[in-house]
Amino acid sequence: MFKKILAYAGEHQKTTYGAIAVMLAGMVMQVLPFWFIYQIIRPLLMRESVSAEYIIYRLAAIAACTVLYAVLYIWGLSLSHHAAYHTLKNLRISLQKKMEGLPLGVIQQKGVGAIKKMFIDDIEKIELPLAHAIPEGVANTAVPVLVFLGLFWADWRMALLALASLPLGAIAMMIMYRSGMSKMGSYYQAAQKMNSTIVEYINGMEVVKVFNRDGESYHRYENDIKSYRDFTLAWYKVCWPWMAIYNTLVPCVALFVLPVGSYFVLQGYSTLPNLALALCMSFGISAPLLRVMSFMPTMAQINYTISNMEQLMNEAPLTQSPTPFAGRNHGVSFEDVCFAYQETEVLHSITLNIPEGSLTALVGESGSGKSTLAKLLVHFYDITSGAIKVGGQDIRHMSLESLNEQISYVAQEQFLFNISLLENIRLGKPEATDQEVLAAAEKAQCGEFLARLKKGIHTLAGDSGKQLSGGERQRISLARAILKNAPIVVLDEATAFIDPENEEKMNAAIAEVISGKTVIVIAHRLHSILHADQICVLAGGTLAAAGTHTQLLSSCPAYQKLWLAAESSAQWKVSIEKGGEIL
Ligand SMILES: Nc1ncnc2c1ncn2[C@@H]1O[C@H](COP(=O)(O)OP(=O)(O)OP(=O)(O)O)[C@@H](O)[C@H]1O
């Protein structure tokens, strides 16, 4: 486990080794005073006369060692923390890089709470071994070993006595570690579940309030925090008795040395000075060993955390290659594509050709697979079989980055980061100047509502989210796409938030985004895509038909059904409007 943790430290491993060396020197300073105490006691025991200077020098040495110990300990800690926090940063970055290359399904399966826990709490746990357990553990183990060897050289019987309680302590420590590990799985899962429930509870607060589900979701929340408490206590319950045994046995080294050592002296097996030496040095052994022990309860936790993190790190990434995009054009083709979320296949043998520069609309009943097909094109998931090609190049044979450069994907609810609206739009083209961003916002018809905001385009999205309507937020996403100016545009329900007042503006913004591009649009409002070059009708995950509106109307029953529904909803709308009601 420590080897793995040190490997995470990368280039900061050397700093960790430096911290170990400094702390070792510090530990020597902690043990040396016991040697000087022995030097003061020895002549007194032997009734030898010593000068006042002899005593003063040793007392001064004890004081110097104490000061040096403090200085070295702080120095060692600052080195180890430096290495630890750089390592945590590296780990968080490599985890984020890993996540970027993972299929969305893996991330969704883990859940936001569990991933947040991994990024924040689990990685933070590695600070303990890196900043403390490894450097302090090595120093606190090495120095007692050295002391023991010295003692063994002076008097092997006394040395063995000083260590008499340690084997029992070590057994207690091992049992504690093993029993802790056996409870770790359930403890860890309970922690993950609690995290997910808390995140879900907060995210779903709106629904909870609207539907009066406070009681129900509170019960789930309460149950999860209760089970976390129970699993934590169960873990402590198995660990505490063994920790208590160890904590009782290890400081007992002097108690073994004193009676048995005195007996040895009386029997002539050893001498009084050696007894004094063993007594003094046993204090130098027990304190560091107790410090080592203080790290043990959490080691099992850290071991589990690391295995869990490695599990995510070892997840198979999306199939891609480092090759850049080299397609002939920006036409898109789906060739016999099948796809399953986990076990359930939701798209079956879809074959579809979308010529460059054309507008293709995906229509179909809810759940027919429209959004999934769009998500497959932007390579959120790997398909089960078949191929998706852009300009004749399989999207698995190019890097995700270069595929992203070819496509602007505007989802139904585009996420706005809590940075300024200007920076949110700039995500479409990070190198864009402020002027370019403003021009894109203008083209996306954002000017009017941005003027309403006190800080305009510099308003933070988190604050503005409360002030912007769904349609306005969507126009920010369209501005992002205009700025990106990718040759392929995928609009997933781009007109979902449309209202009569905004319709004109939204249409103007969409016209800007799609002008001259290969466009794939998912639309429920059939009236908005009547002039599409090609309308693809999806039904139950298969492609029922493809053609123009007129062709489909005369030949495709599934399309006729959708059209009838669209027509009757339009008539219903007109009749309500005529009745003077507000829509
Ligand atoms: N993340 C997911 N995990 C498992 N199944 C999913 C997931 N997302 C969608 N599905 C399922 O895949 C099928 C297709 O869903 P999809 O969202 O693509 O349909 P859609 O036609 O876009 O629907 P809508 O018009 O309601 O948005 C549905 O049966 C849906 O339940």
TrEMBL record:
Cited Pfam families: ABC_membrane, ABC_tran
GO cellular component term of the entry, any: plasma membrane
Localization of this protein: Cell membrane
Keywords: ATP-binding, Cell membrane, Membrane, Nucleotide-binding, Transmembrane, Transmembrane helix, Transport
Domain ABC transmembrane type-1: 18-301
Family matches, as PROSITE patterns: ABC_TM1F, ABC_TRANSPORTER_1, ABC_TRANSPORTER_2
Residue span(s) of domain ABC transporter: 332-565
Transport found in the keyword field: yes
Protein name: ABC transporter ATP-binding protein
PANTHER family: ABC TRANSPORTER, ATP-BINDING TRANSMEMBRANE PROTEIN, ATP-BINDING CASSETTE SUB-FAMILY B
Transmembrane segments: 16-38, 59-78, 156-177, 244-266, 272-290
GO molecular function: ABC-type transporter activity; ATP binding; ATP hydrolysis activity; ATPase-coupled lipid transmembrane transporter activity
